[in-house]
Amino acid sequence: MFSLTVPNMAAKITRTIFRDREVDEDRFAIVKYGVEIFLVNVTKGITVYLAAAFLGMIWQTLVVHVSYLIVRRHSFGLHAKTSLGCTITSVVMFVVLPYFVKDIQLSGWIIVVISIFILLNIAIYSPSDTENMPLFNAQKRHKMRVKSIINSFCLLLCIPIINIDWIITLILFGSLLQVVLIHPLTYKFLKRRYNNYENIL
Description:
Blueprint (H helix, E strand, L loop, with lengths): L1 H16 L7 H30 L3 H18 L7 H19 L6 H18 L12 H20 L1 H4 L2 H18 L1 H6 L6 H5 L1
Helix pairs in contact: 1-2, 2-4, 3-4, 3-6, 3-8, 4-8, 5-6, 5-8
Enzyme class: hydrolase
Pfam family, one: AgrB
Keywords: Cell membrane, Hydrolase, Membrane, Protease, Quorum sensing, Transmembrane, Transmembrane helix
C-alpha cells in the first residue's frame, strides 16, 4: 500500500514546491522522482532502525550499514525492483542477519582471508551497473573501480585499529553484503542482466 501512496505524496510535495511558478512536465517529473526517492529512503531508514531498536541492535545495524555504504558508494550493484522489496531486503540485511552473526568470533587468519576476498572481488567486479543505470563511460567505470578499492581498503584498515570482536565481524559482514550485490553470480541467480552497458552500446 505504501508503494502506491508514495507517488501521490511526491506529486503533492512537488506541486507545493512549484506552487508559485509554472514548470514544464519534464522538470516536474524530475523533481517528483527525486522527492519519491527521498520519501522511500526516509521510510526505509525508519523501518530498518525501528526493527533494530526492537531487537536491541541499533549499534550493530549502524556498523553493518555504514560499512556496506562505504563499500557500495562507488561500486554500485543490484537494487530491489520495488520500494517494498527494498525495505524488506534492508531489514533482513541490516537487522536480521547481523543478529545471528554478531557474536561470531573470527581468528586473525580468517579475518585476513575474508579481507583479501573482499578486496579481490571489489577490484574485479566493481562497479556493477543495473538495467536502469548502465555505466557507459569506460573512464568513469575505471575511476569508480579505483575509488571502490580505496574505500574498501581504508575500511578494512580500521579492523586492526578497532580490535573489538563484534565490530570487526560486522564490518566484514557489511562489506561482504556489498560483494554479494556486485557479483555476477548473484545477477545470474536473480535473472538480472549484468554489464548492461555492453548490451546497449
